[in-house]
From TrEMBL:
This is OLC1v1020383C1. Keywords: Iron, Metal-binding, Oxidoreductase. It comes from the Eukaryota. PANTHER family: OXOGLUTARATE/IRON-DEPENDENT DIOXYGENASE. InterPro entries: DIOX_N (IPR026992), IPNS-like_FE2OG_OXY (IPR044861), IPNS-like_sf (IPR027443), Oxoglu/Fe-dep_dioxygenase_dom (IPR005123), Plant_2OG-oxidoreductases (IPR050295). Residues 211-312 form the Fe2OG dioxygenase domain. The keyword Iron applies. It comes from Oldenlandia corymbosa var. corymbosa.
């Protein structure tokens, strides 16, 4: 899949949704109005659907004896979550609740700054760091009803120091502390995901090298016509794991696509939402699947989310692990350099799970 042509999008008053929202618009600019088949029609969300994504109590895995019934029960729940949902919420995750509040505050403080201040940290074409709209490559491509601010965190070599804001004053310090705790959480989760696959618990940490970690803050202002727009286009993540923190008091905006239905994810107070990325799907040869998801908007409420992407080092070679392949389950994906995959991911627009075509073996494209 060839990369799309990179088209520069300079965030200004016309395409900055916060600025549009301030003008109390009654009609949506055409640039944001989705084609009918893409619109988040309520009819496509089954009101009688009682499905909710699974919940994992991490303390039961961390404190339990591995032969203990509680540990095995929670491990089975994790297995089912990864295999059938690709998403779960984790409680008792060990991240300080005060830190969760702090990162929300500095994120919101950033988005509430004047546009001119935020424009000091522009997202350059073909990159996903800075303030602006990511994954936009043509003049006629529809824009998401969302403002983003994204930063590379680890290793330090991926950082762009010019994009780390001086305001709010404690932004960088808070993000550093928060990212360290989320990194610990990702390592813990990957350890138990490995155990759920009957693999050595350290297999992912040893394979990933110095893992790449990035953070993105998404702000979705209220929209007068949420039925016409999308907060974030449907996609799967290119990461190994993604950790999502949904802002307190935010509208319900995250939907996952399962069994031909869009299922809204109801936030649990103080929980974090975890999803499997494309990298884990490839490594497990499709046993654990990344899942298409999207964000929608609300007519009266805004929404804040803070997302961490955790992935292997760019120089690591990725492919189905030997333990995940046998005569009955041949390789579905080729081996490739993770850095090449990441470059391909960020230079193409979000289109469901199309990013995985990069990794699929040609005769397995339809599997």
């Amino acid at each position: 899949m060839a990369p799309a042509q990179i088209f520069p999008i300079n965030v200004g008053h016309i395409d900055d949704v916060q600025e549009l929202n301030k003008t109390k618009i009654s009609s949506i600019p055409q640039r944001f109005i989705r084609d009918r088949k893409e619109r988040p029609k309520v009819s496509r969300i089954n009101p009688f659907c009682q499905k909710t994504i699974p919940v994992i109590d991490l303390s039961r895995l961390q404190k339990g004896n591995r032969d203990d019934h509680g540990f095995q029960s929670e491990l089975q729940q994790l297995t089912d979550s990864c295999e059938h949902w690709g998403f779960f919420q984790v409680i008792n995750h060990g991240v300080d609740l005060g830190l969760l509040e702090s990162i929300e505050k500095v994120a919101m403080d950033f988005f509430m700054m004047p546009l001119e201040e935020k424009q000091k940290y522009p997202m350059n074409p073909g990159t996903v760091q800075g303030y602006g709209q990511a994954f936009v490559f043509s003049e006629d491509q529809k824009l998401d009803w969302c403002n983003m601010f994204a930063l590379g965190v680890e290793p330090h070599s991926i950082r762009n120091p010019k994009l780390w804001p001086s305001k709010p004053a404690n932004f960088s310090e808070t993000l550093e502390e928060y990212s360290k705790e989320i990194r610990k959480l990702c390592k813990n989760l990957l350890k138990y995901i490995a155990v759920s696959l009957n693999l050595d618990e350290n297999v992912f940490e040893e394979m990933f090298g110095v893992a790449v970690q990035a953070a993105r803050m998404n702000y979705y202002p209220a929209c007068p016509r949420p039925d016409l727009v999308l907060g974030l286009s449907p996609h799967s993540d290119g990461s190994a794991l993604t950790v999502l923190q949904q802002g307190k008091g935010s509208s319900v905006g995250l939907h996952i696509f399962k069994d031909n239905n869009w299922i809204p994810v109801q936030p649990i107070p103080n929980a974090l939402v975890i999803n499997i990325g494309d990298t884990i799907e490839v490594l497990t040869n499709g046993k654990y699947k990344s899942v298409e998801h999207r964000a929608v908007t609300h007519k009266e409420k805004d929404r804040l989310s803070i997302v961490t992407f955790y992935a292997p080092s760019y120089d690591v070679e990725i492919g189905p692990m030997a333990e995940m392949v046998d005569e009955n389950n041949p390789p579905k994906y080729r081996r490739y350099n993770h850095g090449e995959y990441s470059k391909n991911y960020v230079t193409n627009k979000l289109q469901g799970k199309k990013s995985l075509e990069f990794a699929k073996i040609p005769n397995m494209q339809n599997n």
